[in-house]
Amino acid sequence: MSCASCADLCVRYQIRHPRELQSAIDIASQNVEDGTIVEVQDASLSNQFSFSELASGTPWGDTVEHHFRCVNCGELFYLHAETYHGSGGYWGPENAKSIRENL
Fold first, then answer.
1. Confidence grade of residue 91 (pLDDT, cut at 50, 70, 90)
2. Could you tell me if residue 2 is inside a domain?
3. Looking at the domain assignment, is residue 34 inside a domain?
4. pLDDT band at residue 74, thresholds of 50, 70 and 90?
5. What HEC string does the chain produce?
6. Burial of 60 (0-12, 13-18, 19+ CB in 10 A)
7. Most buried of 39, 93, 94, 99, CB within 10 angstroms?
């Protein structure tokens, strides 16, 4: 379950448009910078770029998929979007019980 540090990130944020993906990247980046979450490296992901490259403005690849972990409670979060066909994606916690109502 989530903690006070990551509770605001525990939403299922649907990504349907490029601006929504950019917003999710910006929020994740801010939380990485302030130490709330850290990226979980996973060699099996199909990313073309690291999250730091993505957050600094590198153009998106065909897919965006990054995993993060809260440094306080260990809650896992996923950022996933398919950009090539524009089918969208989502930001959210791995644990469905942690999902709050979308804001």
1. very high
2. no
3. yes
4. very high
5. CCCCCCHHHCECEEECCHHHHHHHHHHHHHHHHCCCEEEECCCCCCCCCCHHHHHCCCCCCCEEEEEEEECCCCCEEEEEEECCCCCEEEEEECCHHHCECCC
6. middle
7. 93
Overall pTM surpassing 0.85 (yes/no): yes
CB atoms near residue 10 (< 10 Å): 20
Instruction: Give the structural domain span for 25.
Output: 9-98
7-11, 19-23, 41-45, range with the lowest pLDDT: 41-45
Q: Give mean pLDDT, residues 91-103.
A: 80
Question: Length of the chain in residues, anyone?
Answer: 103
